């Protein structure tokens, strides 16, 4: 503080910061990336541990006698599913009732904004079936949810079999302290969404659902089973929820602890042991993940039913033993591997180093604006140092946000018109409209200030850039707090672009770099990168098709489940990027 | 044995008006569970209200008698329940009770400081029953205006003398059962009470024990009144988990005891077994039993009765172990006409909505119900959002009594008289906001959340069969608790689920961080400000360089003006 209250030293510090601005920024960028890379290095991360004493992996029964029966139930379910050509509602109701559950059904229907070509659905109608195992001597205040989606085709029959097997086994135990809800939902996430909305009696996404008849109190935790084969080698843990929400780390730890105890391979994101970053920021919304008011986690590719399902029993048992809400342990973390995690205190500096670049640039611009370079000794220059026109800054802001709004609203609004005039399907129409608006945004009038105030002033672009840089810092900061992966990837591409764009750079080269670093291109590269990580590289055409489907999925996820990535990109990130585009072409 | 009998006779002659009855009702439920309901009634003809000091206690427990006389209690009802009564599977219970603890008391109109007396009474009862009743204070006590009328004689309806409180979080265990058993004249040494072994009673789906004290008429003219103490214990055993799906039960299997004698002090000791739904019951022992019919909760039921005071009930084995097997359940259970459920809608920690659903399953009769809701103050009810809808239409309550809450002083009280149309669902919704508590008011970090007690629905439900209105006739205890005024309807009280709500809870590790942060900010910010304020500023004389100083010395020697 003494440093700042002393005008001389302050000046020296500011001089230092402005003089060495570019090198400091470069160092920060490299340090940020290096820090992030370092998170994968095991000595820098923490070992996972159980925070919640009630969930220690001891004192549990380690056998599940009805494995064979669960498999048989799964086969029976498959047969009934084939016969019914969908969800065998009556059979499920009867089977659950015979296992001593209170059974209820819920009907739901939803018309998608445009046909989903990946899953081939448009008008979705379905039924959820759920059975409640009432805990003895508990007053219906708390519930655990165990769910298995009823998928089309031959997928996931074993999971439903296992679910029903567990229901039967659990019914004969006396120690339950929370109601357990066994849910078989149709149309995977749409059914899940409908059920959750029905359970909490809210309607956030516009699904039509019939009200639920039976409830079990507030949901404390949920497990989702996905299981498509009788014998499979390993268990995979899928943690990411909608909008980057994560379940309490204790849930994941507990699962891993059980897998270790019984010697089953447990993987995260299909990667067994080698530390690996989840670099799927933008993809997070495009993957089928479980979402909803609570964090959900799916476990699929389960091990052979007979030996593995006691891990679920154990998990449920431990959750049952919980004497409190899951409040301990971490809700913000990254998992390089199952045995290690990175808490928010360790990964945020990586982002902070990137964000500080924007602040340094803003400081630099502020100093430049506050102390104009002495150009001429006469007073004519001083007269021109009038305050920058508010309009010349406001206009680009408004225009770019209007473009963003158009990108957000038009693709779905005008799909019918597009289909009439062009030989494309609805889904293609939406995606291509979005891309068209995105590209058209680049050709917008960039020099409106010249119309308004005659001649553009050197000062004005500085003011605009100052605002744009601060805007981006706030935007990325908020995004990274909520969804670190998304925020970090955006920062990685947008920050260097934002830092060094001025009207004085070579136009063509800079424009090319800017387009490469724009959000859409980032997404395109990530598609290829992701395929590469999955070790199924794709050709450019396939990658492009994948890119188109990712966009349509993003738009659908937003309107179906309330995923925030599409509106974030369309309404905030893209307009912010347009501001810099505007600065580049400032005359 | 003989000696005891003689002694009893002697005592009965000198003090003829004490009476003790015990009974056990067993009803196999449609869901495969078994419902066992114990009732013990002690009648005591005395009047300690008019300043009489009573010091002689015989059958009536002294601890309760002293409580009644000291606190001028007119009526006292207390229940401890673990579990939730599943009306849709089990039908109506004989004695309804909400999960947790419930206490309601009518005081004599001679009591001046009702709140003070209530406070003392709850503390005393807390000691008697080993329960946390001392947590009852003004923030969870209400004075219902219509829902809880006195069940005994007396015309006091001024609800200033009524106090009602529930503790939904209360956990009931053996430590509550033991003092309850000690109130019985025979303890758990003889009679039906020997069946009450806690390891079996708490290995069940539902457990509820209650004590009801009220003044009743001694005879049909009601010339003399006497005090009635009813102790009830209701248990539902889950035969699905223990019986491997076999439809069979016996006293030994349920209670791991058999009966050998009635309580010698009891004037009547009976076991009733409901055989209405299962006419083709096969008994293990071929004991002679009486078949009676009784009208209970709007339904005519057939019971087979075993009188324990008769020696031949126990047969040659000198022990009674009833065993019943029956075939699979046929026919549907008589669906309860009234059913209710409640839940919190919405998510997040700011607002929410309480939904109460009330089902009238009567095909053509509508009937009124009284809904009582007592909501803690930290849920701020928006009473203007209160809606009552049935069949999609607005259903205007004919009576609303609302008492708004006061922060940290008293809860919300909402009572409504609503007409339920036939075969319909009536939904009552009210929005609320979750309050921020003071930091000492939060429960410790490991908690489930905050509990909101059950709402109470009291109704006169139209009966399918004519109800018995003769209150003085000898009837089984389980059918005579709620007085019946008219033949065409019967009284039902049902409780909804308690609610569990999360309040916005700050991270309590935060104060540490906040202290660190504020200390830093204060030190740095205040330090520099103080520095600026106290430092005296001077224009610094630029310190000339060494070369310049030497040059100036030379210049002065030469007489030339020095360099600036």
TrEMBL record, chain A:
One of its GO terms (biological process) is attachment of GPI anchor to protein. Component of the glycosylphosphatidylinositol-anchor (GPI-anchor) transamidase (GPI-T) complex that catalyzes the formation of the linkage between a proprotein and a GPI-anchor and participates in GPI anchored protein biosynthesis. Binds GPI-anchor. It is a multi-pass membrane protein. The chain crosses the membrane at residues 20-41, 344-363, 390-410, 468-501, 508-530, 564-586. Heteropentamer. Part of the GPI-anchor transamidase complex, consisting of PIGK, PIGT, PIGS, PIGU and GAA1. Interacts with PIGK. Pathway: Glycolipid biosynthesis; glycosylphosphatidylinositol-anchor biosynthesis. The keyword Protease does not apply. The keyword Glycoprotein applies. PANTHER family: GLYCOSYLPHOSPHATIDYLINOSITOL ANCHOR ATTACHMENT 1 PROTEIN. One of its GO terms (cellular component) is GPI-anchor transamidase complex. The gene is gpaa1. Its main location: endoplasmic reticulum. It is found in: Endoplasmic reticulum membrane. It comes from the Eukaryota. This is GPI-anchor transamidase component GPAA1. InterPro entries: Gaa1. Keywords: Disulfide bond, Endoplasmic reticulum, Glycoprotein, GPI-anchor biosynthesis, Membrane, Transmembrane, Transmembrane helix.
TrEMBL record, chain B:
One of its GO terms (biological process) is attachment of GPI anchor to protein. InterPro entries: PIG-T. It holds the Pfam family Gpi16. GO terms for cellular component: GPI-anchor transamidase complex. This is Phosphatidylinositol glycan anchor biosynthesis, class T.
